């Protein structure tokens, strides 16, 4: 168990900058998720930590030990890939035993260890089968077992659940979280699925175009997104964004699509710190309500219902507001008709404001370090 630290790590492939000057720490014994869209550099970052790639520049540390130039076998990491990568001609038992046989451990020790992890992952009954005779979820557990028998200091997981069906994903991700807690191993889990990252991780690192966008708890990235990218990436459906104008006649107000908002105290303070006139007004679909009257004490914007998508547990209602589609989550009973005019209301406490130039959450003006690195 060690913390993993990256200092100014850059990785280029020819002209592509896959990882761009990343400085970051993955805490000891915690579950971290590396979250970002396709092509954002997640796998590259993971393989740099594993030692499969060498950084173009920068340094990597496991605890106090610099590992930048060490090959994978000297780093004691366990790696699980998206596609399991089990040896098809070996039985499950031998797949799991393989890393220990490479290390020439005595067979009696190997056997004890295989039985132990098999129990842990509940695959004792499968040891005598070939990978081709297993379901995807079972193969995934075997791959995890093979990574764990090495007793790695760091467990690295690259989209390990992406080949599984939705139900199995939920089951295995819960198991993975319990397992990590129990072993207190430093785990780094790559995913592009924000719900998976939120559910599993203590720390979420949001990455885009090779750069770290925010590091924080699930609560931080959801409630205090550092920039517009994070605000739009975390949450489903994504946060709504509308242009707003700052009015400074005595008290600070924000005008959005003809409606006025008295921003919550923190934002009023932040706006007082800066002279900006334009803002991006951001709120989540789950924080908005629909009504035929404007709500008092809230931002209430008039719009026209565009489409209603019933999902059983809730509906997603898309309302056109000044030409911008705004999504609102409603209880199943709230099902307005397309073309109806109504109000989208959001309590001021749930309205976030961002700078359209820098794309930063204006809260950063109050606590520059609180929302992560620049
Ligand atoms: N071996 C390589 N040679 C050239 N370019 C590469 C190589 N590996 C990755 N890249 C590029 O680096 C960028 C980051 O790729 P990476 O595989 O790290 O993304 P990712 O976040 O894991 O994406 P995904 O979610 O699709 O797996 C991409 O633009 C990719 O095309
Ligand atoms: Mg990848």
From TrEMBL:
Pfam families: ABC_tran, TOBE_2
Keywords, comma-separated and alphabetical: ATP-binding, Cell membrane, Membrane, Nucleotide-binding, Translocase, Transport
Signal peptide: none
Domain ABC transporter: 4-234
GO molecular function annotations of the record: ATP binding
SUPFAM superfamilies the record matches: MOP-like, P-loop containing nucleoside triphosphate hydrolases
Protein name: ABC transporter ATP-binding protein
């Amino acid at each position: 168990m060690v913390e993993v630290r990256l200092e100014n790590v850059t990785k280029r492939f020819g002209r592509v900058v896959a990882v761009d000057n990343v400085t970051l720490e993955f805490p000891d014994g915690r579950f971290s998720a590396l979250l970002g869209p396709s092509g954002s550099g997640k796998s590259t970052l993971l393989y740099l930590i594993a030692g499969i790639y060498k950084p173009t520049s920068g340094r990597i540390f496991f605890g106090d030990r610099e590992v930048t130039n060490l090959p994978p076998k000297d780093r004691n990491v366990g790696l699980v890939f998206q596609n399991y990568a089990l040896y098809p001609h070996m039985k499950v038992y031998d797949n799991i035993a393989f890393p220990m046989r490479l290390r020439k451990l005595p067979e009696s020790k190997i056997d004890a260890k295989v039985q132990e992890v098999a129990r842990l992952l509940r695959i004792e009954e499968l040891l005598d089968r070939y990978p081709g005779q297993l379901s995807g979820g079972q193969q995934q557990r075997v791959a995890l077992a093979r990574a764990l028998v090495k007793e790695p200091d760091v467990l690295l997981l690259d989209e390990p659940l992406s080949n599984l069906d939705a139900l199995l994903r939920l089951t295995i991700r819960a198991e993975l979280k319990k397992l990590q807690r129990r072993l207190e191993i430093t785990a780094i889990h790559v995913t592009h699925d924000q719900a998976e990252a939120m559910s599993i991780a203590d720390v979420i690192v949001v990455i885009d175009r090779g750069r770290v966008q925010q590091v924080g708890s699930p609560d931080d990235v959801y409630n205090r997104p550092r920039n517009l990218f994070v605000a739009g990436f975390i949450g489903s459906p994504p946060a709504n964004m509308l242009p707003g104008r700052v009015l400074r006649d005595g008290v600070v107000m924000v005008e959005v699509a003809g409606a006025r908002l008295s921003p919550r105290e923190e934002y009023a303070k932040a706006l007082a710190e800066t002279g900006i006139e334009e803002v991006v007004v951001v709120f989540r679909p789950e924080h908005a309500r629909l009504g035929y009257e404007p709500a008092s004490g809230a931002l209430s914007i008039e719009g026209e219902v565009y489409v209603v998508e019933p999902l059983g547990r809730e509906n997603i209602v898309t309302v056109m507001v000044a030409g911008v589609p705004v999504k609102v989550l409603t209880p199943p009973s709230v099902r307005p008709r397309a073309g109806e005019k109504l109000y989208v209301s959001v309590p001021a406490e749930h309205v976030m404001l961002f700078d359209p130039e820098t794309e930063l959450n204006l809260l950063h003006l109050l606590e520059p370090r609180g929302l992560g690195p620049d």
